[in-house]
Design a protein that fits this description.
The structure holds two protein chains of two kinds.
Chain A: E1 19-21, E2 26-30, E3 39-41, E4 48-49, E5 54-58, E6 65-67, E7 72-81, E8 87-95, H1 116-125, H2 138-142, E9 150-154, H3 164-171, H4 173-187, E10 191-197, H5 201-211, E11 217-222, H6 231-239, E12 252-256, H7 257-269, E13 275-281, E14 289-294, H8 299-305, E15 315-319, E16 326-327, E17 341-346, H9 361-365, H10 372-377, H11 382-387, H12 398-402, H13 409-423
Parallel strand pairs in A: 1-14, 9-10, 9-12, 10-11, 13-17
Antiparallel strand pairs in A: 2-8, 3-5, 4-7, 5-6, 7-8, 13-14, 15-16, 15-17
Helix pairs in contact in A: 4-7
Chain B: H1 18-46, H2 57-80, H3 88-95, H4 98-107, H5 114-126, H6 142-153, H7 155-161, H8 167-172, H9 178-184, H10 191-194, H11 201-206, H12 218-230, H13 236-256, H14 261-269, H15 273-280, H16 291-311, H17 317-326, H18 329-339, H19 344-369, E1 381-389, E2 392-400, E3 405-413, E4 416-424, H20 430-435, H21 438-444, H22 459-480
Antiparallel strand pairs in B: 1-2, 2-3, 3-4
Classes of the chains: A alpha/beta, B alpha+beta.
Amino acid sequence: MNGVRLPKRKKLSTNKNIYVYNKPKIVYIPLISSNDENITILVKKDDYVFKGSVVGRRKGNYKMPIHSSVSGRVMGFEEHTYLHGEKVKCVVIENDFKEKMENRVTPRTAINKFTKEEFVEKLLNHGVIGQGGGGFPTYAKFNSDKKITTLIINAVECEPYITADFMLFKEKCEEILEAIDAIVEINNIDEAIIATKKSNYTLNKLLMNFLGTYLKIKLLNVPNLYPMGWERALIKEVTGVEYDKLPIEKGIVVINSSTAHSIYEALKLDKPVIERVVTFTGEMLKEPQNVLVKVGTPVSEVIESIGGYKRNKEIVFVAGGPMMGTALPTDDLVVSPNMNCILVLKEIKTVTRTECLRCGKCVKVCPVKLSPVLIRDSLNNIDDLDSYNADRCIECGLCSYICPAKINIRQAVKIGKKKLSERG
Amino acid sequence: MKEFNSPIGPYLKYKNSSAKMQINLLIALFPIIIFAFYKNGIIPYLHGTTSFMGMFYPLLFIITPAIACVVAEVIYAKLFLKEEYKTTKDFLKASHGYIPGIFLGLILPINTPISIVILGAFIASIIGKMLFGGFGNNIFNPALVGALFILTAYSLVITNNGGYLNSYELDTIAGATPLTNASNMIEVGSYETLVEPYGNLWDFFLGTIPGAVGETSSLLCLLGFIFLTITRTIKWKISVVYVLTVFVMSSFVGNLNGLGTWFSLFHIFSGGLMFGAVFMATDPVTSPTTPVGQVLYGLFLGILTVLLRFLTPYPEGVLTSILTMNMLIFIIDKIGAKARFTFQSAVMPFLVVWAFVAVVGAMIGNKYQNVDLNPDVDPHYYIVNQTEVLDKVTYVVTQKGYSGAIKGEIVIEKGKVLSMVILEINDDFYPNIESANYIDKLLNEQDSLESVDTISGTTYTSSGLKKMLINTLKDYEVNYGE
C-alpha cells in the first residue's frame, strides 16, 4: 500500500490513565446514527428515562437504537453540533445522578455461550457501532450466512495524536481479549488477528503476556504507516486479500478494538453503548488525556473539567484526528459513540499557498491510487472525474498533507466526489 | 461556548514547500555553474585567450538572463496582473522567475551576444510563462522556449561569433560540437572521428568538450540527479528512462555497425542529453504527474531525441524533443491516471513504444550499414555525380568542411585539373579563402598538393578543399588513369 510515516504526537495523551467524567448535569443525546438523521423519536418532553432506555431508533435498513446515557427527565429537544460539524437534533435529558437502569443484570460468568442469533441481536439492541469513526452498525458485519474465517481486530489507530483505542486496550486488555475469544467461539471463526503497529511497544509487550491463553488469537504487527488503519489497507496487509465491496465476501470481518470492548459490555453486562473513551489532546490543551465520557456530554464541559485551553484565541478546535477531523467554529459539540478525538491546536496564520507545481507528489502518495492533481484540474468535466474515479476517495488527507504548495487538494477531490454522487 | 476560526484540514502539513524545492534545484545547479565558469572562464584565461575581465564573462552570461527574466516578470505583473498580486515581493516569492533565466544561460552557446540572451530571457518569461498565466500554468518549458527562439532566429549570428566553442577551444579544436561533427559525416563514424578529436570518453563524462555553457558535464548532472532524487525534488523516472532509451537505441545503431559500447556512451554524454534529462525534462510544471505517464514521457523523449540526431540535420535534439513532448503531457497523464487502476490500459502504449524503439533503432542502424567502410577511402568524401565527355571528366563531389559539407565541381582532362568551382559552402570565413586565391594556388600546385599549406583561421575549410582535390584525383587515377 502507498502510505506515509506521519509524526506520531501520541505521547501527549498517554501519560495519564483514563479519567472518568460521568457527572454531566444535562446530556444532549444526538439523534443520529451512522450519519443518518432519519430517526424515530420514542420519548417526549417530561418523560422519565432510565439509563440505557431507548430514546430513538433509526429508520430504514439498520434499526439501530439510540440510548439515554443517564437517568432523568426529558427537558425537550435542542440542536447541537455533531462530529461532522453540522447541527443535529438532540434529546435533552436532565441527569438525576441516580444511574437507574430499567433492569440491572448481574455480570454473566461466561459470555461465549450465546448462539449466533442471540449474539447478533445483542449487538443490535445495545447499539454497538464501529468506534473507530465510521459508526457502521457492528451487528450487520456478523449478520451473514457466509462463514467467517478471519476476524481482524483493528488496534492500529494510525492517525497521529489519537490514543483512545490504545489506552482502552491497555487498561481493559483482559476484557477485550475475553470478548474476542467469545466472538470467535460464537461465530465459529478460524482465527482472530490483532493488528497493532510495529512501533507500539507497550501494547505489543502487554499482548504477548496474554496471548498464550487464547489459541485462536494471534498478534500481527503492521508498518507504522498512514492510513494503515483503513479497512481495505489493513486487510491487504494482514491477509493479502483484496475484495470488491465488503470484506465479508472473502470471509473476513474487521472490528475496532474499542468496539470489541463495547461487545464485551453488551454480552457481559447487557450495557448499551452509552459511554466511550475520547482522546482530548493537542498542544493547546492544558492537560491532554483520555477521558471516559457519557454519550451526549457537551465537549466544552469535559475540556473545562480537565483544565481547559492554554489560551482562548488563535487556536483551532478539531473534532476528530488531525488528518480526517473537521475544525469547528465553536466548541458546542456533544459526544457521540463514534467520536474518538478532540484536538486543540495552535492556529497557523502564515500558510504560504503557491500555485500548483504539478510535482505529482499527491499522485504518488494516494492510497487509493487516485490522481488528485488531475481531478482538481477537471472539476468542471464530469466525464473526466468519472474516468479518474474521484468517487473512490477515502478522504484520508494525505494529498493535502504532502503538497509542497500547501493546496487543500483533498477539498478539491471531495468536491469532485460530491459532483459524481449528485449525478448518480 | 467559544468561537474559533475553522480552517480546512488536514491539520498536519509536511515540512516540504515549493520554495524549498526551488532551493534544492539551485543547490544542484551550483556545481554546474561553477564548472561553466571554470571551463569557459578560468581555462581560457589561464591559456591567455581571454582577458582577466573576460574570465568572468560566463558568470555574467548566466546571471544576466536570470535578472532579465525577473525584470520581465515584474513588468508584466505590474502591467497586467495588478489585482492578483498586491505586492511585488509576494509575487516574486511565488513566481521563482530567475530559474528559467539561469537555465537559459546554461543551455546557450557561449558566443551568443549578451543582448540576444537578454531578448531570449524576455521571450522565455513573457511568452513561455506569463502569457500562459504565470508559474504553474505554462505548457512549455520557459527556458527552452527562449533557447529555441534564439537558436533559430540568431543561429547565423552565433555561428559567426564562433558557435559553441569558447575562446580556448576555438584555438585548439577548430571545429564544431561532437554532435555537429557526427551529423556532418555521411556514415556512422568511428572512435577516431567521433571521440578522438575531443579527447577520450572521460573528457565527455567530465565535460571538457565543446558545447553549451553549462550542459557539457555529465558527471555534475549525475551528481545533481542523485541529490535531487534523494531530496525528492524531481521526478527521477523521467531522467532514468530518457537516458536509458537513448542508450538502448544508440546501442542498436552501434551494434549493427560493429561499434562498441563507447558509441552509446558518446550519445548519452553529448548534446546536453544528461543536462536535459535531469533538469529540463523533469521541470515539474511541464512534465506528467502520474508515474506511468512519467515513464512514457521519458521513452518518447528518448525516441524523439534519437530520431532527430540520426535522421535530421539538426543534431541538438534534446531541446526540440522536450518542447514537442510538452504538448502531449495532457494525453500522457490521462493514460497514466487510468493505468493506476487497470494497468492493461498502459500496456498498449508501452508495447507500441517498445516496438518503436526496436524498429527505429534497427532502421537507423541499417541506414548506415551500406556505406563502404574501406579505410583507404576518406569517409568525409563523397562523389555525387561524375560525367565523361570525350576526355573531360566532370566530378560533382562533397567533402566535409567547417560546418556541413562543401560541394564542388572539378573538371579533369588527361590527369590535369582544369577547373574547380565551389557550389555550396557553409563558412562565414570563406571570403578569406577567396581573397587568398587559395583555389588557384591548389590548381597551380596540383602535382604536390600534400605540401600546400592550409590558411590559418579557416583551417577546416581550406584543408577540406585540399582533401577534396586529392580525393578526386585519386578516384580519377583509379578509374581513368593509364
